[in-house]
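Worked problem 6 (solution included).
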Amino acid sequence: MIRICYIDESGCTGMLPSATSQIQPILVIAGIVFHQNHLTNLTQEYLTLKRKYFPALTPATVPFLEHVKAEIKGSDIRTTIRNGNRNQRRHALGFLDGYVSILERYNAKIFGRIWIKGIGRKINGAAIYTSSIQAACGDFQNLLEFENLNGIIIADSRDYLQNIGVSYSIFTQKFKATGDAYGRILEMPTFGHSQNHIGIQLSDILCSAILFPMASFTYCTGYINSVHVSPKYDLIKKRYADRIKALRHRYLDGGRYRCGITVSDDLAKRSVAPLFVV
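Solution. The predicted structure is:
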């Protein structure tokens, strides 16, 4: 049995030129880890959840597995919670309730990085993404060591050259002269298409529908005035902060805990702790 880590992102690497810019003020890069032997039941349950809440995505007459091709995007879920009426918000939150219950039922572990952009500050998108994937590999390696298992990483495919650069950065760590930094990760990260990977779809929901709005409300309120910051996102934070907090993979490293979710806040230099305070 192995563990599989699925990684996705939400937000963009564009610079935030002003407090009123409509560029997304946050970048979230996070992974969800599942046991390989749970994938069949996990897939069945998530497809059933999709059909229950979004039956119009695909015709009812198509084979059950065809529903994997019609994605529910986390960004659409958070938009509904931000702009929808009461019934639409209730429907979106009902879907997220079912989603988080699946993560809990299958002993998912999560880790990732949340980058809060500074106003008018240049950012190096390639470096941020690469360092985030390296950090995820470190967290995943620790989890695999703890469980005495091996694993693989499947990330949502990006630009061809970006994929190569990130994978090469892990290659250099696995085959360096001083030894493999990620000995329990069997190969370099591979890049898949979300229409074929339930795990990537689940990671998208985590990044875009839960972590992004939680971080936006927590770190950008009072600093950023844009469509990406909304008081309605507090509904998501209050409803899921404790449950997501419990799913993090945390471990001691050099006498201090490393957190499954970390925050780099270039607005006010706050830690991850406020993210989970409700």
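Discussion: The chain has a mean pLDDT of 94.
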